[in-house]
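Incident review: delayed structure delivery

Summary: a single-chain prediction request sat in the queue longer than the usual turnaround. Root cause was a stuck worker, restarted by the on-call engineer. No data loss occurred. The affected request and its eventual output are reproduced below so the record is complete for anyone auditing the incident later.

Affected input:
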Amino acid sequence: MYYEWRPYVPVAQRRVLAAREMAKLRGKGESVQPVEITGRAIAQTFWGRSWCMHLEKFSDYANRLPRGRTYVRNRSVCHLEIRRGEVVARVSGSELYKVKIGVRALPAASWTSIKERCTGQIASLLDLLQGRLSAGVMSVVTEPRTGLFPQPGEMDLDCSCPDWATMCKHVAAVLYGVGARLDQQPALLFLLRGVDHEELIGGEAEAAVAAATKVGRRRRLAEADLEDVFGVEIEKETPVVAPAVERETAKKSTPRRGRTAASRGRTEPVPIMPATITGGDVASLRKRLALNRTELGRLLRMSAAAVGVWEKRDGTLNLRRRAREALKSAWSLTADQARQRAQALSR
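Output delivered after worker restart:
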């Protein structure tokens, strides 16, 4: 008895086959997310490089990883999606193979330990709100044994190819593809391990803002940093309250919100953004678009914590230009458009 190797299929031919199959999936309404590598380096950022280095530390994977690197570089990973507790992918080989990598949830005790080691690092809080983490926090979450990266025993590897090995080259390519995907969306690592990255700051965001605006304690959190994070200009003096007549006039000129066109049985234009924005206006916008804070934050290119700070802030928000333009764009959307755009930005 002997096994016969399948005939070699050139890369160009594999790409044609893969493109045809991916087109069929798109035709069925499925979201196709290929892994595209630019240059020789698979990963460019701290997150992606750390993931790849983590893989290469395990001797069980050593003999399969080189082929995986080749496959991911030549764009053989036609689709890769990171979900809670799993990675699903399609890899082009002699035919299009299905790959599934199950990843166990991070134990609660390990996550608690990570949060405790990240607590109190104000600079890290700012970086997290801006979509970045400081080197100190990144070293905690990417520590090989006590961080977020899974160990070999915490992963279940499966591929539809006929290779008998637990880790075939297609699985290896997908694992490297995860590193490339973390370059673009590092928060997916938290999703994969079943934890919420916003818990790293927990209730400290509001406490940090309050501490920063108290007299004599501004050194802990610079106003310029707060303005960059939350998209508002910190008021230097008490704002002048408009006379009652002016407030009443402004109220009458502001378009009514809250009732949908469907409730009136006719088509109605989307409300125009008011000249002055309050925290209540932001909350009303989010309600009209039927989004949670995380989804609205994606539309505005801000964090969910920043949206929460906006909504809870009393009085008029002194928005910076970038934040105002982002809000104006979101204000012009319908609920369906907002939902589609938020979903697209999460990929």
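Verification: Confidence is low (pLDDT under 50) at residues 122-126, 203-227, 232-268.
Action items: add queue-age alerting; document worker restart procedure.
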